[in-house]
C-alpha cells in the first residue's frame, strides 16, 4: 500500500492551509488510483513538542510518531501559510527537527497559502531551496492559493491542484508525468512551406 504524508502548517482551525492540503491529498489519491494510506499532520497540534525537540534534539511521544510518519512515507505534501514573504516558523522548525537526511529522495508536492498573489513566488524562492537542501524531490508544479482563489478563482486553483497531484502520483509510481501534446512536435517541413508559398 502506498503511504502519503500531508503536513499542514496552518495556525487557525479551520484554516485555508489545511483546506488546500486536503484538496491536494484528495487529488493525489485519485491520481494514484489505488490503495493509499493518507496521514495528515497538523503542526499546530505539535507546536510545544517541536520547541522541546529543537532544544533537546530528540522528538518524543506523539510528535516523534508524526516525524516518523513523514520520514517513512512514499510521498509528501507540504503546505504552509506565507508570512513575511516566506514559510512559517512552525513549518521550518518541523523540518529542522526531522533532520537533513530524513527526506532523501522523497517525492514532495509543495503548497502555500497567503492573503494576496504577491507572495506566490515564495514556493520557488523559499520552499524549493529548503527541500533541495533536504535532498527531497519536489515536483515541478507548486500550488499557491490566495484569498481570491477560494472565491471566483477556484477553477484556476482546481487546474493547478490536478496538475501538481498528477506529477506527485507519477513521481511516487516512478513513472514520467503525462505530458500534454506539444503542437510543435511535428512541424510542417520547411520545404513544404516554401512549396505552398507561405510567408515566413
From TrEMBL:
Database matches in Gene3D superfamilies: 3.40.50.360
Superkingdom in the source lineage: Bacteria
InterPro entries attached to this UniProt entry: CE1759_FMN_reduct, Flavoprotein-like_sf, FMN_Rdtase-like_dom, NAD(P)H-dep_FMN_reductase
Alphabetized UniProt keyword annotations: Flavoprotein, FMN, Oxidoreductase
Pfam family, one: FMN_red
NADPH-dependent FMN reductase-like domain span: 4-150
Name of this chain's protein: FMN reductase
Organism: Actinomadura meridiana
Amino acid at each position: 500500500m502506498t503511504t502519503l504524508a500531508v503536513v499542514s502548517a496552518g495556525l487557525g482551525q479551520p484554516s485555508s492551509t489545511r483546506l488546500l492540503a486536503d484538496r491536494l491529498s484528495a487529488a493525489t489519491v485519485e491520481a494514484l488510483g489505488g490503495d493509499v494510506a493518507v496521514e495528515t499532520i497538523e503542526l499546530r497540534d505539535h507546536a510545544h513538542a517541536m520547541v522541546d525537540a529543537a532544544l533537546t534534539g530528540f522528538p518524543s511521544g506523539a510528535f516523534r510518531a508524526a516525524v516518523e510518519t513523514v520520514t517513512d512515507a512514499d510521498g509528501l505534501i507540504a503546505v504552509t501559510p506565507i508570512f513575511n514573504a516566506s514559510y512559517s516558523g512552525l513549518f521550518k522548525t518541523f523540518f529542522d527537527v526531522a533532520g537533513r537526511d530524513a527526506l532523501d529522495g522523497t517525492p514532495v508536492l509543495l503548497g502555500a497559502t497567503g492573503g494576496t498573489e504577491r507572495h506566490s513566488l515564495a514556493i520557488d524562492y523559499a520552499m524549493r531551496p529548503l527541500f533541495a537542501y533536504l535532498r527531497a524531490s519536489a515536483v515541478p508544479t507548486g500550488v499557491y492559493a490566495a484569498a481570491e482563489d477560494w472565491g471566483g478563482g477556484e477553477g484556476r486553483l482546481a487546474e493547478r491542484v490536478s496538475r501538481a497531484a498528477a506529477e506527485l502520483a507519477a513521481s511516487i509510481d516512478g513513472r514520467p508525468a503525462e505530458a500534454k501534446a506539444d503542437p510543435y512536435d511535428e512541424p510542417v517541413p520547411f520545404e513544404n512551406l516554401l512549396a505552398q508559398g507561405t510567408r515566413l
